[in-house]
Amino acid sequence: MTGSAAGSGWRDAEGKALIDYPRPSVAVDVAVLTVQTGRLHVLVVDGPRGGNALPGSFLRPGERLAEAAERALRTKAGLVGADFHQLAMFDAPDRDDRGWVLSMAHGATLPRDELPVDAELVRVDGRTVSEPLAFDHADMVSRAVDDVRARYARRIDPSGLLPDTFTVLELRRLYEAVFDRPLPKDSFRRLVIDAIEPTGRMSTSGAGRPAELFRRSGDAELPAGASGLLTV
Amino acid sequence: MTGSAAGSGWRDAEGKALIDYPRPSVAVDVAVLTVQTGRLHVLVVDGPRGGNALPGSFLRPGERLAEAAERALRTKAGLVGADFHQLAMFDAPDRDDRGWVLSMAHGATLPRDELPVDAELVRVDGRTVSEPLAFDHADMVSRAVDDVRARYARRIDPSGLLPDTFTVLELRRLYEAVFDRPLPKDSFRRLVIDAIEPTGRMSTSGAGRPAELFRRSGDAELPAGASGLLTV
DNA sequence: GTAATAGTGTCTATCAGACACTATGTT
DNA sequence: AACATAGTGTCTGATAGACACTATTAC
């Protein structure tokens, strides 16, 4: 337990003061996912050894992991307002050749238009990034995709990739991008219709009949069978 | 990224060598779940401040988190052979009054008869432990329950809570314990029957018609709708 | 035989998926 | 008018859940 030893005076079974053990550096890396041209993409930055890498940072004293992740995105990509989800701690002792560095991978999601116009995005095929990334960052992207799919299968656009109001078509296009598969128009509508709130307003559509605008309903969950429709 | 700075000579934006930042202690805590008398229970040990706590340990140099978790279980509870799953990093700066300690919560699962006979078990109601635990360990238990349910909804007894062969009744009793709700006998059988392998052998039952013994099938997954049946 | 449990046939309500149809806008 | 997209009615096949029935053991 976190509470079994350490602190000045605490000693382990062999009599060694636990506080004296060398401590690892702790880092955070963030896979920022977005949707561009109907496909999932991940934000990358220049890595320390060249090549692409996920934005990340070292944890500072007293800081929480989510704060470090927010700081990394702000300083390295000019991003604010993402919501972070812990994915996994990557802890292979040799994963970073500069020393013993544990890294907590985070997933985040932002609409394309909240990213800088010159942000470098790499396409995600299925659940894997389409070109190599530094370190174990490609594995982190896969975990981020799994996480965003699991969350989107439970609720309607929980990370706000769409604007406040949207049509059912826009919502379906988003889900087709997230789950990387076509979704039948009528079944999809019936699946989500009870989990979104109609606004009276209509979309100023380009062509064809205008579609009604909906907004996310506070806490509405998708039916349990939704994961079947989405992931099969 | 984990690779943006640090190492001798690397400096952050303010010119401070990142390697010089104070580093947190990193610990692991393990919520070992088991089934006793048809209910989920969690293994606890004596905490450093009295009261019950999850077994845990500090991470040692070069060690992986799973190794630290295995060592914690071996030295504090005499357990071997559990499979660990990372749950979340608990990182509140004040979660441990002895210093800055991050703890990676792990979930593990073992059959009751692989635990010591005198192991102290606390019942789990729903997804919360039925009595207070030290630190944030009660939250860890909830996460462990969520994790084991998610894994059991995808596959048949992936953690081997049952012996190598088992009857459909034994499997159903296990799932009723894990999901904390009664499951209809016939629907449950039809749900799992294609994901387990019949052995020719029959259970030496106490009373009634003998039941066939099955074994886990290598990779068989439960249908996607299973989560509906199990969690609704 | 009775008791007890294993396993199956069947009916119903629900729902995904497909298809076609109607509705309402633009040009 | 033609065209395009929104939204709905309806049929079908699959299946969860309920129920009853048959099957096979112990006593």
Automatic annotation (TrEMBL), chains A, B:
Gene Ontology terms, MF aspect: 8-oxo-7,8-dihydrodeoxyguanosine triphosphate pyrophosphatase activity
EC number: 3.6.1.55
Alphabetic keyword roster: Hydrolase
Protein name in the entry: 8-oxo-dGTP diphosphatase
Annotated NrtR DNA-binding winged helix domain residues: 161-215
Tagged with keyword Hydrolase: yes
Catalytic class of the enzyme: hydrolase
Organism whose genome encodes this protein: Prescottella agglutinans
InterPro entries: NUDIX_hydrolase-like_dom_sf (IPR015797), WH-like_DNA-bd_sf (IPR036388), WH_DNA-bd_sf (IPR036390), WHD_NrtR (IPR054105)
Classification lineage: Bacteria, Bacillati, Actinomycetota, Actinomycetes, Mycobacteriales
Membrane spanning residue stretches: none
Origin: domain of life: Bacteria
